Amino acid sequence: MAVNIEVYKEIEQELSAANVTLVAVSKTKPVEDIMELYEMGQRDFGENYVQELVDKAAQLPKDIRWHFIGHLQRNKVKYIASFVHLVHGVDSFKLLEEINKQGQKENRIINCLLQVHIAKEETKFGFNEEELNSVLENINQHRQRNQLQHVNVQGLMGMASFTDDVEVVRGEFSQLNAIFHQLKTNDHRLHTLSMGMSGDYKIAMQKGSSMVRIGSLLFGQREKKH
Ligand SMILES: *Cc1c(COP(=O)(O)O)cnc(C)c1O
Asked: Is the model's pLDDT at 122 over the cut of 80?
């Protein structure tokens, strides 16, 4: 069995005691593995690829809350708009507008997180602090004109550098937590801070994460490196 049920139980207890939401990242893993955790009570699952998410969602129970945690292309929003629970990686205003447009078509409000670039690596997507402030300002101006009614920007998401240096990871998560708290004082809609993966979720929790995205610890290593 690839799914590590004992580890799941431990992590689930650890997180629920701290009021942190566990998103079980099931990308590249079969629907049977997802069902094993579903039967344990897990309902939040994360996927990175639109086609894979669409295929799995069609085969699995309707009360699963699907989190899209990958890099979402604008032309693919329409495929997941009818059912996605939370889009973690919104990294442009244009993407947010497209999510809003598709949300309107589906007559629903789609939850979103803005991705913040905290890692030193160039490859990670997301806004820097200055861009984040201006995009939030822009969102607020649209709201005042009763626009963007079909998206609910409820927080931030970030990924730390891929490094063994714990101090670097701590520093990056601290920085994101500080940004989040500062924004939250002005905008009470912001309540979700998605940070932490298999290798760094404990640090993320110490630094104020409210949602962690854990894949390999639960489902085992993935075949390909994504
Ligand atoms: C794959 C992925 C995860 C899970 O990674 P693990 O190291 O397997 O826990 C979390 N967040 C994002 C954005 C991912 O792409």
From this structure: no
Pocket of ligand 1 from Cβ distances under 6 Å: 25, 27, 48, 69-70, 159, 197-199, 213-216, 226
Decide if 97 contacts 70 (C-beta within 8 A): no
Alpha carbon dihedral 136, 142, 148, 151, in 10-degree steps, equals 20
Tokens of 65: 């809350």
Give distance in angstroms: CA of 140 to centre of ligand 1. 30
Ligand 1 pocket: which of 197, 203, 216 to mutate (most atoms within 8 A of CB): 197
Give the position, in ligand 1's atom list, of the atom nearest the Cα of 88. Answer: 13
Calculate how far, in angstroms, residue 123's C-alpha sits from the geometric centre of ligand 1: 15
Which residue has the least CA distance to atom 11 on ligand 1? 213
Closest CA to 75 of 49, 108, 99, 43: 99
Is residue 226 predicted with pLDDT exceeding 50? no
SS3 90: strand
CA-198 nearest atom, ligand 1 = 9
- Give the H/E segment covering residue 4: none
The model's pTM:
0.96
% of residues, the chain, pLDDT over 70: 97
17-57 confidence digits (pLDDT tens): 999 999 999 999 999 999 999 999 999 999 999 999 999 99
